[in-house]
Recover the amino acids of this structure.
């Protein structure tokens, strides 16, 4: 649902501007300060002229105004981005001006009816005039006049190309005289800012209008006197140009508004404090264009031209830097000039779900793309970010596993296995079921080694993970965790140091036993009777208790009291 925003701004009180409470901070969006232009020709110094961009002719149009010695301007001027051109003014065409894309013409209304034209030739469309701020409401599809009635309450009327009609509102709010207004294309809102309030108890307030009712919102960060409000599609924000300070030392200020609130832009601009100037977004140059007005401190009529232009996006970082060719990876993109982004592409393919975090950060979900490294580009109304090493993302194919060697190991872990397959990368990880390998070494794109973790007796699929995804089941990727041998007891549990005692070893996991040790010496011989019995002949060993250790390809039993065999010196030996 659409909503409009109404900001009640402070009155001048005792020679100063009041200060309103600070809301939460919002990201700054303007990447550069105002720049004074030096056109080849320029209009005469004047104030009060209407300035609008004519998309049909790709030129800005300056209409009306009062020059030095209070003389009415005798020319209409058009600006093509480098030169102002004068055209004889048409009698009675004066007032606020806006371009109507539905009509393909400029609309002027105020004092002498409503006119439509191309900035040079005009036609009277309706004898009725609507004074106030004109803007094109894209939600309504018509030009609207935002003004006040005799009780200083907001009024909105719409022009369909031939007639004006009121736009119904509920919950009318006192706003002062002739409030600055813009239509915010990013949010579909009408934004209004008053130059002065009429009731002290409602000063310094922000209101929203959802098409049926007004709702109070937060105020800006400091006291301002808003002279104009213009939507800048390149910056994707409404720009409020202000007077700040006190009489005799007013300064020019720039504020921006988006759906999250107001942001005061960095000071340091050289634009003189002024009022009653013309300002519009110039689509031909992609910048906010300002002309003339009255220098408020010296009371001098001005004839200078200024532009406020953002910058093309720049991408300085991408995280993560790789993902699967199927897409679906959420990527954080950092850089500058991102707030006005109109699109993000990976190798020319549009990303989805682009989310702005701040002027320096956004997120986007990767599309499906062919394997390889591709440039990440962010686009706004002023252009596309340049190619850069830091702006690259690699689309990778998923790995595969074709064999494991060995394919089984002890439940105690620690077995080094060799995994062969395809599409292994330097940042590969390995899972045994859901348990990660504690150590992985990538040998090549087709081979890596991984150390098995500790795990219960079971069989698990070995999964290799890379930014390209997970390896799919192949039938050759199952790894068995097998219990190592365990010795429960010995019979007998002692014998002479000379050896030769036949010892029955009782336990489990004896299949494929490769050795039997009595302390530091191997059994003279042994026979695996069953997975739970081994018959071994003790070797010669020094006197004392020694652990009997059975070793298989899976591992060895842990030494315990029950596996100790005691060698005894014989009498007389």
């Amino acid at each position: 649902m659409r909503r409009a925003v109404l900001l009640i701004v402070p009155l001048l009180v005792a020679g100063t501007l009041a200060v309103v409470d600070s809301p939460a901070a919002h990201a700054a969006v303007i990447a550069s300060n105002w720049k004074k232009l030096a056109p080849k020709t320029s209009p005469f110094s004047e104030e009060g002229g209407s300035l609008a961009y004519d998309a049909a002719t790709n030129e800005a149009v300056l209409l009306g105004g009062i020059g030095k010695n209070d003389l009415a301007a005798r020319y209409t001027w058009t600006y093509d981005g480098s030169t102002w051109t004068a055209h004889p003014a048409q009698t009675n065409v004066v007032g606020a001006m806006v371009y109507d894309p539905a009509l393909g013409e400029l609309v002027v209304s105020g004092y002498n009816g409503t006119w439509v034209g191309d900035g040079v030739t005009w036609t009277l469309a309706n004898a009725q005039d609507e004074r106030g701020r004109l803007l094109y409401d894209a939600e309504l599809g018509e030009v609207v006049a935002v003004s006040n009635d005799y009780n200083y309450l907001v009024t909105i009327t719409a022009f369909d190309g031939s007639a004006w009609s009121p736009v119904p509102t509920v919950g009318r709010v006192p706003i002062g005289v002739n409030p600055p207004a813009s239509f915010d294309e990013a949010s579909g809102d009408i934004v209004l800012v008053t130059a002065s309030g009429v009731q002290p108890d409602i000063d310094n307030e922000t209101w929203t209008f959802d098409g049926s009712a007004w709702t109070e919102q937060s105020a800006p960060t400091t006291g301002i006197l808003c002279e104009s409000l213009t939507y800048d599609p390149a910056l994707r924000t409404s720009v409020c140009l202000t007077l700040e300070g006190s009489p005799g030392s007013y300064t020019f200020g720039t504020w921006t508004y988006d759906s999250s609130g107001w942001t005061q832009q960095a000071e340091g601009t050289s634009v003189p404090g002024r009022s009653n100037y013309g300002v519009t977004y110039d689509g031909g140059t992609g910048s906010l264009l300002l002309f003339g007005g009255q220098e408020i401190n010296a009371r001098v009529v001005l004839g200078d031209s200024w532009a406020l232009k953002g910058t093309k996006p720049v991408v300085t970082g991408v995280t993560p830097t790789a993902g699967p060719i199927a897409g679906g990876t959420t990527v954080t993109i950092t850089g500058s000039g991102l707030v006005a982004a109109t699109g993000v592409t990976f190798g020319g393919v549009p990303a989805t779900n682009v989310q702005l975090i701040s002027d320096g950060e956004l997120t986007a979900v990767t599309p499906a793309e062919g394997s390889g490294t591709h440039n990440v580009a962010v686009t706004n109304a002023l252009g596309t970010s340049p190619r850069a090493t830091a702006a690259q993302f690699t689309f990778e194919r998923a790995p595969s596993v074709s064999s494991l060697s060995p394919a089984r190991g002890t439940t105690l872990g620690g077995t080094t296995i060799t995994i062969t397959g395809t599409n292994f990368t330097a940042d590969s990880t390995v899972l045994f079921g859901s348990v990660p390998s504690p150590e992985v070494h990538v040998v090549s794109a087709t081979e890596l080694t991984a150390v098995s973790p500790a795990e219960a007796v079971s069989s698990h699929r070995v999964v290799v993970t890379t930014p390209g995804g997970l390896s799919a089941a192949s039938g050759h990727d199952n790894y068995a965790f097998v219990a190592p041998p365990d010795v429960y007891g010995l019979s007998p549990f002692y014998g002479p140091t000379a050896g030769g005692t036949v010892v029955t070893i009782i336990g489990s996991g004896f299949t494929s036993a490769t050795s039997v040790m009595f302390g530091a010496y191997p059994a003279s011989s042994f026979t695996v009777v069953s997975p739970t019995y081994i018959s071994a002949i003790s070797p010669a060993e020094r006197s004392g208790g020694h652990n009997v250790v059975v070793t298989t390809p899976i591992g060895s039993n842990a030494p315990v009291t029950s596996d100790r065999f005691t060698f005894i010196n014989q009498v007389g030996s």
Observations:
- Residues 3-29, 197-203 have pLDDT under 50 and may be disordered.
- The radius of gyration is 41 Å.
